[in-house]
Write a structure and sequence with these properties.
It is a single chain. The protein has a domain of 163 residues. The strands form seven sheets. It has a five-stranded antiparallel sheet with strand order 1-10-9-8-7, with no helix packed on it. By secondary structure, it is mainly beta. It contains four helices and 29 strands.
Length: 420
Amino acid sequence: MNTKNIIISIAVVIILGLVGWAYWYFMMGPVAIPVSPTPSEGQPGFQPLNRNTPAGQGGQATSTGELGSTNILTTDKTKLPTLRLLSDTPVGGYGASTTATTTNVLWVDRGRGNVYRASYNSSQIVTLSNTVVPKIFNSIWNKNLTAFIGSLLEDGDLVPTNVYSELVRQGTTTPAKSSLAPYELRGKNIPGNLIGYAASPDKSKLIMVMDESGMGVGYISSFSGQGMTRLFSTPLTQINVAWPTDNAIAISTKGSASYPGFLYLVSPKTGVWSKILGPMAGLSAVVSHDGKYVLYSATGKNSEIQTSIYSIASGTSTDALIKTLADKCAWGNFYKDLVFCGVPSQQMSGIYPDGWYLGSLSSVDKIWQVNAATGEVHLIASLVDQADRTINAFRLDLDPKDKYLFFMNKNDLSLWSLAI
């Protein structure tokens, strides 16, 4: 073999080596493989999502336990920013949980349905599942972040499809499939025209409201949607549903400046309704996790926003000293007197909340904290000073210990966290 052929051969070997290294690094490197969990019991109708293979093929379906605590994840020394961009691509809902060692947040990619995880002892973003379940626009997660209820809307559909999805450990005894992630999504459709749902405070149950012949019918079930028990029936179908405390489900009418809105609390044991607020134009409201307070916004004079805190015990309202929509607020899980809000930096002009819901009106937000017990107000962060874009915060939530505030940016549906 002459010198020229030898040089060509060496070059080919080097190129192939670089290609192999790149494939390993980008496809395998970012995935942290969890400890193999214990087997779970099979469920009738429980199938891999968007897959033609029956449940059980390609590895045994297994329960995942709490992903954060069972996962082998090396702590790196990278200092995490106070304001952290978790996903720059649109997100279809997220869930957060705190373990003995760290806080984890999982989310669903709105485009493909991939599931990702970020932990706060590492700067790494881990791909847990790349099962293709596209166009998930909302999801709520169980306590251990092993399953979620998701809503997806296909092109041309007016009514969303709702699914229960579980992260299931991929089998290790079968040949490698197209997915290199350690989990796949398996699940089942939730039947009926579901118009609202929420998880119980301990994330073990669901309240699901179905549209049945023009009536809103509420059911209590397990988180997976099994064992449904009818709780109430109401003529209201345009509603928001939350489950802030063990003893109260919150039902509110969807807000509009043109119509009066109401907030009710419903007993999850008896189904009895109690009116809390209303009628108020443009009403939206969030109830504290101890059931003592309601932060609510309503449309005032000249379509201006009025934001107040209502004491359920005394039946009185006080000015919250901030002007924002209740849709941009979340109560603390650990410090239950505190509420955190995305507050516009400048006075908002336009018809609220309608314009904000439709996306024709936006805001540049700061994060403020209000103490409902004392009335104190504190600025937590000016987001525009820390981010590379303007942030119109919504879908706020906190981890169980109130260490991190999570929110999405309504402008681009990106996902962020703020250390507080």
